[in-house]
């Protein structure tokens, strides 16, 4: 039954492992429950309580779709970066209403459903060269490690050098370092559930250090009525809507592509030709979640790169995604308890997983510079531009230009030419 419902294989994993993997993934991505309401709080008419509820509900729907349809161990929720683009660029920057932005998210979700049914998204993944796929995994490793380092204030903003070392002798940074050492030692000793145990221990240590702030246990979910089904359908055919939808499509598509390629490659969930199992079903789950999230009143729902933490714990099937959905459902009623987990407690998990995600880099042929130069661009641009999609887009553009200039036409497929042109136009006009 578990195999039929979730793609569960007892030769690869156990039910206990899948559940622990789901809890681990949830804990590393649960920050969205606090961050999303805070970001949308800048918009009048979007109450924080309603946004919290819609965020959790969108995550539950997305994870259930991934569990039963995708049968893959990935967690979904309203995406970081996409929520900031929604609020600060579309609404506050360009002056559009949040109802306009929600309409754009709805259209994006419907387009993604169409692209998935017609296998366009799968064709795009298959067009990515093998060296670029390995680079995506390594780049994501650096990216999520940087997220952990910055969220715990080990790395901070520096006006002179862009980034710098924070105060590592106290506060969040010290707690994250302690948690990193504890989690690392447990991982070295092959302690089952090391990442999850590390998060819990770090959170507890944070209490006497004054970093973990206990906010309570129970609360009743607030109504989403103020933001439910709020669209501006009269703006659908405008040029402004086209530009916003197009930008949403690019960011979401290649963030998701990068996450799925990187995490699946690390987990050996690919065949001998490098194709990801059930990738189209995973895309459909993502598209369904985005569409449902728009109705609920939140920004684009996408697959989370933090899913790598659960995969590192041994998650291999949709049962892990089901566990993530269950955690979000519980969080609806225990939000104060879950929101008590500080970023410094999840940062060690992200840094450790960042290390694990770097492994595919050894498969890149560094002696073949027509492969390694584009791969390096892909890797380095993800953390430095704070975007998975930028790394993929710039890496693909470089791959086509370099191999075209070297006369290696047989390495470039027609789809790769089309993608490189579209990516270039995206940077010129959008």
Structure description:
With 430 residues, this protein is mainly α. Helices cover 65% and strands 3% of the residues. The chain has a two-stranded antiparallel sheet with strand order 1-4. A two-stranded antiparallel ribbon has the order 2-3. Helix 4 (48-70) packs antiparallel against helix 12 (279-296) and helix 8 packs antiparallel against helix 16. The longest helix has 28 residues, at 239-266. The chain starts with a helix and ends with a helix. The model has no long low-confidence stretch (mean pLDDT 89).
Topology:
Layout: H1 2-6, H2 15-29, H3 32-40, H4 48-70, E1 76-78, H5 82-93, H6 98-117, H7 120-127, H8 130-151, E2 155-158, E3 162-165, H9 171-188, H10 194-205, H11 239-266, H12 279-296, E4 301-303, H13 307-312, H14 318-331, H15 335-338, H16 343-357, H17 369-384, H18 388-405, H19 414-429
Antiparallel strand pairs: 1-4, 2-3
In brief, what are we looking at here?
With 430 residues, the chain is mostly helical. The protein is 65% helix and 3% strand.
Count of distinct strands: 4
The biggest beta sheet is recorded as:
2 strands, antiparallel
- Class per helix and strand makeup: mainly alpha
Strand order of the largest sheet: 1-4
Beta-strand percent range: under 5%
Mean pLDDT: 89
* Head-to-tail CA distance between termini: 47 Å
Radius of gyration: 21 Å
| Share in helix | 55-70%
Helix and strand pattern: HHHHEHHHHEEHHHHEHHHHHHH
The low-confidence parts are none
Global outline: globular
Helix count equals 19
């Amino acid at each position: 039954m578990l195999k039929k419902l979730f793609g569960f294989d007892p030769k690869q994993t156990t039910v206990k492992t899948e559940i622990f993997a789901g809890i681990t993934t949830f804990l590393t991505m649960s920050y969205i429950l606090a961050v999303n309401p805070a970001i949308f709080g800048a918009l009048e008419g979007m109450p924080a309580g309603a946004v919290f509820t819609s965020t959790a509900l969108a995550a539950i729907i997305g994870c259930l779709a991934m569990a039963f349809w995708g049968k893959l161990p990935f967690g979904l929720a309203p995406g970081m970066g996409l929520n900031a683009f929604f609020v600060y660029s579309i609404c506050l920057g360009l002056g559009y209403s949040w109802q306009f932005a929600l309409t754009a998210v709805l259209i994006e979700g419907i387009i993604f459903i169409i692209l998935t049914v017609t296998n366009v998204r799968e064709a795009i993944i298959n067009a990515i060269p093998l060296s670029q796929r390995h680079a995506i995994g390594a780049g994501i490793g650096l990216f999520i490690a940087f997220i952990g380092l910055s969220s715990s204030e080990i790395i901070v903003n520096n006006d002179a050098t862009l980034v710098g070392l924070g105060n590592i002798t106290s506060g969040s940074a010290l707690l994250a370092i302690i948690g990193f050492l504890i989690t690392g030692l447990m991982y070295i000793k092959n302690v089952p559930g090391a990442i999850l145990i590390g998060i819990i221990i770090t959170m507890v240590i944070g209490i006497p250090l004054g970093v973990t702030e206990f906010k309570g246990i129970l609360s009743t979910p607030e109504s989403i009525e103020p933001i439910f089904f709020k669209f501006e359908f009269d703006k659908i055919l405008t040029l402004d809507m086209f530009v916003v939808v197009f930008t949403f499509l690019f960011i979401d598509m290649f963030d998701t592509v990068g996450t799925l390629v990187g995490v699946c490659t690390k987990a050996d969930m690919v065949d001998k030709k490098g194709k990801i199992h059930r990738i189209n079903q995973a895309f459909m789950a993502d598209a369904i979640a985005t569409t449902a999230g728009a109705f609920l009143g939140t920004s684009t729902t996408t697959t989370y790169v933090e899913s790598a933490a659960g995969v590192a714990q041994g998650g291999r099937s949709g049962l892990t995604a089901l566990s993530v959905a269950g955690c979000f459902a519980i969080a609806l009623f225990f939000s104060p308890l879950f929101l008590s987990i500080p970023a410094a407690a999840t940062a060690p998990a992200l840094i450790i997983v960042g290390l694990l995600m770097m492994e595919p880099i050894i498969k890149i042929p560094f002696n073949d510079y027509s492969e390694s130069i584009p791969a390096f661009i892909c890797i380095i641009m993800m953390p430095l531009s704070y975007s998975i999609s930028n790394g993929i887009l710039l890496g693909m553009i470089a791959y086509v230009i370099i191999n075209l200039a070297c006369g290696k036409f047989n390495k470039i497929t027609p789809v790769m030419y089309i993608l490189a042109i579209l990516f270039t136009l995206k940077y010129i006009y959008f």
